[in-house]
């Protein structure tokens, strides 16, 4: 039975890495001593080792060990053998490219679908959707495909930002970008504000955290849902 | 001899479409009665016809006609025959995908290199660089390649935004994103603020407009250049 936390961000303003979500992680990772960390998204270009150190330090606060997937000779086997998996944020294109390069897309999808607990933050959440087409990241590398894990039947937009009505900047708002997405794609998009996450258990998908989420469905006016809402009908 | 204006934006806050740059366009388009408009980037998903109408209306203010490339049976020939070309902004992935689909990359590169005056705004400027890898846009479609026209020997980041030091949002700043680009790519990136443009004539590349631009070179600290600076040494 699937058991995932798909979080908008690793860090909310003013607190430490993963701090806001430790309570949930204690439950998610209750049967795991060691978490397999996937550092491929490399935020700000930091190394796999440095990024894993950061995750290690944070997860030690709830008594868990973390080990980087890059330290395994056979990363496919590392995923299959994992007690739990955490994919950190950074650049989604870099992450997806590396997952394809190491032939991990199928292994990750199958392992998480069959019940290995999974935490994704930011880019690590984007990949839980159908494609990376609603990432906010810069396309700094070209992955072989935009298709991702499809662990939920829609796309994620993490770090969802409401339009800044005071802005004089002429770039598109997030809502405009997602509207453009729906000119070429039909899957729904869930805009997850920082501090929000989806908890997926089996067929249940519940919005958690203090904030509402914004739902974009093809040919519908976008709408808000409250924390606690069951979202498994969105597909 | 190349003759291009590569503009950060079509529109600066508080004025109409292309208004701020009409004086330059009068000179750029002095020998052209009719401008071939490439509406492929479809901002907010508007149709090719509607977008062309918008360009038509604006260019009529300086006595020019505009005609959409989508109205030609043979778009490659339309580019070769054009008196001048304008590629509007919108989504860079959609634009590049359509250029590849219609087999226009080579024709556009050759035609502009051989002297047909060219105006690009936003996405239409991104494609003048080496690749789309420094676009700000959402990857809502997957083009066959990220490589673009290479009319200048670097990449463009249009709508360049300085970090907002008051922001509580945890997404990456533009500078962080470009720094990540340089972990995987060596070409320089020119961050063009709204209201800035590059004027390329032959081998000369001069920054124009009221604002400075920010230059990002591989393994160097980013730096500012003033309007009027010759940038042809950046490669």
From TrEMBL, chains A, B:
GO molecular function: dipeptidase activity
SUPFAM superfamilies on file: Class I glutamine amidotransferase-like
Keyword annotations of the record: Dipeptidase, Hydrolase, Protease, Serine protease
Domain of life of the source: Bacteria
Enzyme class: hydrolase
Pfam families for the chain: Peptidase_S51
InterPro entries per the UniProt record, alphabetical: Class_I_gatase-like (IPR029062), Peptidase_S51 (IPR005320)
EC number assigned by the record: 3.4.13.21
NCBIfam families to which the protein is assigned, alphabetical: PRK05282.1
Family: Belongs to the peptidase S51 family.
Protein's name in the database: Dipeptidase PepE
Organism of derivation: Gelatiniphilus marinus
Source lineage: Bacteria, Pseudomonadati, Bacteroidota, Flavobacteriia, Flavobacteriales
């Amino acid at each position: 039975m699937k058991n995932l936390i798909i979080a908008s961000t690793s860090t909310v303003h003013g607190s430490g890495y993963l701090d806001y979500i430790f309570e949930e992680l204690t439950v998610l990772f209750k049967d795991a001593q060691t978490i397999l960390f996937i550092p491929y998204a490399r935020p700000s270009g930091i190394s796999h080792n440095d990024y894993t150190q950061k995750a290690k330090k944070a997860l030690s606060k709830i008594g868990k060990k973390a080990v980087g997937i890059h330290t395994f000779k056979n990363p496919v086997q590392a995923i299959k053998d994992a007690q739990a998996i955490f994919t950190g944020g950074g650049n989604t294109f870099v992450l997806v490219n590396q997952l394809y390069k190491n032939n991990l897309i199928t292994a990750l999808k199958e392992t998480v679908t069959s019940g290995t607990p999974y935490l994704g933050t930011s880019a690590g959440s984007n990949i839980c959707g159908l494609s990376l087409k609603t990432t906010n990241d810069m396309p700094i590398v070209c992955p072989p495909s935009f298709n991702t894990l499809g662990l939920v039947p829609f796309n994620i937009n993490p770090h969802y930002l409401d339009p800044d009505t005071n802005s004089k900047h002429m770039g598109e708002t997030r809502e405009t970008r997602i509207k453009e997405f729906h000119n070429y794609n039909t899957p729904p998009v869930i805009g997850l504000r920082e501090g929000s996450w989806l908890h997926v258990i089996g067929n249940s998908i519940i919005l958690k955290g203090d904030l509402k989420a914004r739902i974009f469905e093809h040919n519908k006016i976008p709408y808000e849902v409250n924390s606690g809402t069951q979202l498994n009908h969105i597909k």
